[in-house]
Amino acid sequence: MEIEEIQKIADYCLHCKTKPCKKGCPLGNDITEFIEYIKVKEYKKAYYKLLDTTVLQPVCGRICPYYEQCQGSCVRGVKGEPVNIGILESFIGDMAIKENWKIERLEEKKDKKIAIVGGGPAGITASAYLARRGYNVTIYEKHNNLGGLLVHGIPDFRLPRKTVEETINKILALDVNVVLGKELGNDIDLEELAKENDAVLLAFGANISSKMGIEGENLDGVFGANELLEYENFPSLEGKRVAVIRWW
Ligand code: SF4
After folding, report:
1. Of 98, 132, 157, which one is at a domain's C-terminal end?
2. Which of 31, 39, 106, 108 has the most C-beta neighbours closer than 10 Å?
């Protein structure tokens, strides 16, 4: 998107004192203030404002259900269209990658080790904030790449792999260690991890579809989203009629 259009979107924001958009964001991103920086073209400051609460701006800006969260709470949306916060967030996140703005360490290195089991969004986010605070962090991931649901559960056209990879590389530059292809229970023992580290964070994610509790959901040909997206465990549906049920 052209920068003029970005400025136009930012200028549409009313800089509400009560910050309903921030309240609507599960992370508590200070949306009002990061947009204010965009208005005056202080993009780097906008990035560091977002960094207070998220390291996944290029990802969240693309895939968050913002129409129900921050944008869903936007005052502009009461009588018209809400501010397009998602586009502004991904714009700033993409710029941070392009300009190589670093995620700064906030505290000196500590003599403390933390193991994180699971390299999905929760694990990599935790690794970033712990590394910023000086902890020596190692992520253990069962797949041969990091990202979890971001790479195994969301198609590339919705969230480009390159964006995920570049976002993660920015976090790893904080000196986060990564052990790939190791699964807890098979290759790693929890007790040993606990002995070798000062703390262990289990960040497995939610990779089993929850059941709807309705009749017929166990019939052949009915699949949960995770089975479809993460495990690609379904027959070819080419030329077939498919019904999609949104459930939450
Ligand atoms: S609620 Fe909407 S208009 Fe108000 S500060 Fe947030 S984004 Fe801007």
Report:
1. 98
2. 31
